[in-house]
Amino acid sequence: MTTVYDLINRDLHCSCGRTHRCDIEALKIGSGALDALPDLISNRHILLVADANTYPLCGDRVRALLGDRIERLCLFEGDGILVPDEAAIEKIRACMSDKTDLVLGIGSGVINDLCKYVAFFAGLRSGIIATAPSMDGYASSGAAMIIDGMKVTYTTNSPTLILGDVDILRAAPIEMIRSGYADIIGKYSALCDWRLSELINGEYRCPFVYDLVLEKTNEIRSAAKKLVARDAEAVGLLMECLVLIGACLTLLSTTRPGSGSEHHLSHYFEITGLIEDKPYFLHGTDVGYSTVVTAALREEIRAVKAPVFSALSQESRERCYRAVYKGSWEEVRDLQNQAARYDHPVYESYLAHWDKVLEILGECPSADEIRTMLTDVGFDLPLFEATYGTEKIRNGIFFAKDLKDRYSVLWLYYDLFINEREVERIERGAIV
Fold first, then answer.
1. DSSP string over 320-388
2. Bridge-partner residues for 144, per DSSP?
3. 3-class secondary-structure state, position 275
4. Which of 180, 268, 299, 313 has minimal CB crowding within 10 Å?
């Protein structure tokens, strides 16, 4: 059985014909792993980055273990959600010196992305001491930032060190454990989108990575009950799978194996939450809920036996952007103008492969199956709709895809079901 340790620090000459590589010099996951920290780090001028939630978990221990190797602490104080934006970037940069040789984070998604981003553009490497098994970006080379109010994923370097002490991870808030589980369950949706794009657009797909991610997703699915009991072995398995999937993204230099329509919806809920100053869930939690949504879309599409496609004018589309993305709508428009996907519809490809399209969509678990996977770990499914509302969710179904230049089932659904009535509905909702 392939493990994450088999994927790092070596050239993988793959059956797909390409050579893959993920450079993570030090990786340790297990009970008591934090004690190994001094032997895993040789750097002498370390900038330690944490926030008010993560530092109390092990910050003093890290400083005691590394001693005078810690050059300075950059601590984000306050109880609010830490946003990886320009202000956070500048706070970390202001704590660096000319001697800084490693940016080491204590935390999970946001802290990890901030450290990767700042380190990369300073010509350094980053490391992360994980505090929750909450998302799959630990080993990824991508850093998801909020720049000018929009979510932008930058290609950086994967961390040179990833340390996951299971004793710390299993004590994380249960919603963060659920979030990591849901982030992996979302791979059913992402992998289906990958296969669909291979068929419709001729996109490259690596069978080795595809099969490995699917295998690990099935493995985590079967560990649901042990995860909510905080079983040490199950939490360690979850962390290993999260790191493995992130490593797969780095191996291929694309997030495609781990991110599709369910992630686009998650980004949409986060971005619109920031724009409207309204609450949103943890990233992985939103991914889980959104996987139910995308599974339902696949079922709706599969009921279409004789497809008829529709389109909006650019003027109508921009009216929707204004209503959905408010003051940030022009950035969404510019991204899609640059991508030019609207200029090159793939209706003929749909028609030529419709039976195969339906077959691929049918390989994804049903919405009911996904619901069961989530309720197995305690997800409150009615809370999702109560938090966002049916109108906002419907808007995301049609326009979350526009936040990225990537094909997914959201494009197919749009091509089948968008119409001027939807435009009017979206505009009415924005006025209210």
1. HHHHHHGGGHHHHHHHHHHH--TTS--HHHHHHTHHHHHHHHHTSPPHHHHHHHHHTTT--HHHHHHHH
2. 153
3. helix
4. 313
